[in-house]
Amino acid sequence: MSNQKPLLEMKNIIKDFGGLRALDNVDLSINPGEVLGLVGENAAGKSTLIKILTGVYSKTGGDIIWEGQKVEINNRADSLNLGIDAIYQNLGLVETLNVPENLFLGKELDKKVLGISVLDNKKMEQESRRFIKEIIGLDIKNLNDPVINLSGGQRQSVAIGRAIYWDAKMVIMDEPTASLGVEEVFKTFEIIRNLKKNNTAVIFICHNLEHIFEVVDKIMVLRAGKRVGFSDVNEADKQEIVSLMVGMDAKTAS
Ligand SMILES: Nc1ncnc2c1ncn2[C@@H]1O[C@H](COP(=O)(O)OP(=O)(O)OP(=O)(O)O)[C@@H](O)[C@H]1O
Ligand SMILES: [Mg+2]
Fold first, then answer.
1. Residue 106 domain flag
2. Cβ contact 103:126 at 8 Å
3. How far apart are alpha carbons 41 and 246 in whole angstroms?
4. What separation in Å is there between the alpha carbon of 28 and the centre of ligand 2?
5. Would you say residue 45 lies in a domain?
């Protein structure tokens, strides 16, 4: 859909760490409900680019346009307020808290007891149980255990569930499949497809091109801080992507 307005545009993004230019005039554009695969060798700048979106790093230069408006993202709260959630395999959740506490972190439900606001733990637990089961399709027995006791895949499902629950407009996943088993990887693909159906945009960073080609709509290649490729997945060729990643001419690479 060419007339669709991008959800997010990053223009000429520069990030310097002292004398090192980690990002050199990088552009990125993503539409609502689109899945963008971000690939590149180690140290290409992938995590740095998305950390600028989550407010972990401030950019040295360039513009961020969100739903047509220029915005500044200075911290995690700015990012969450725009509707950007980030999911890493283990991060994003507080491991010592249980599932309901993580789901409602920073947005706890209250009830009034004798005119005083107190946490409505029972409601949060019921709501979490219903949501995790109905929407995520996960039957977590130990909902009230700290999430450190859950498997990597379960933890990730809870993190993604939180993004869906709070209606994130964009979810960033940095290497979500890195240490998952085959079944859990399929579960991750399913979750990405569900986010897409929900019209949520996804930026998916992954070293495994098989995984990338399985779920993304577009692929963007970074090499040494520069954007060296951007294409529709249907028009992309794995060999060509690898050549762009490592810096070989696709025609001479065999
Ligand atoms: N906080 C920091 N301080 C100094 N340099 C940094 C910092 N964070 C990242 N860098 C540098 O920026 C460059 C890009 O790193 P980045 O983590 O974005 O790479 P990446 O593409 O995510 O790599 P990987 O695939 O290994 O995760 C690297 O050279 C890295 O050393
Ligand atoms: Mg990284």
1. no
2. no
3. 7
4. 17
5. yes
Q: CA 151 to CA 155: how far, in whole Å?
A: 6
Domain assignment present for residue 190? The answer is yes
**Beta carbon of 205 within 6 Å of any ligand 1 atom:** no
d(CA 196, CA 95): 27
Mutation test of ligand 1: which of 47, 58, 89 has the most ligand atoms closer than 8 Å to its C-beta? Answer: 47
Total domains present in the chain? 1
For residues 61 and 24, give the distance between their C-alpha atoms in angstroms, rounded to a whole number: 9
Residue 62 lies in a domain: yes
The C-alpha atoms of residue 51 and residue 137 are separated, in whole angstroms, by 30
Q: Which of 15, 20, 41, 48 to mutate to test the pocket of ligand 1 (most atoms within 8 A of CB)?
A: 48
Atom of ligand 1 nearest to the CA of 51: 18
Provide the residue-wise pLDDT of the chain in tens; the chain has 254 residues.
Answer: 456 789 999 999 999 999 999 999 999 999 999 999 999 999 999 999 999 999 999 999 999 999 999 999 998 889 988 999 887 655 567 778 888 888 887 678 888 888 888 889 999 998 888 888 877 777 778 888 888 888 877 887 787 778 778 778 999 988 877 777 787 788 788 888 888 988 999 999 999 999 999 999 999 999 999 999 999 999 999 999 999 999 975 454 44
Q: What is the CATH number of the domain that holds 194?
A: 3.40.50.300
Of all protein residues, the one whose alpha carbon is nearest to atom 22 of ligand 1 is 47
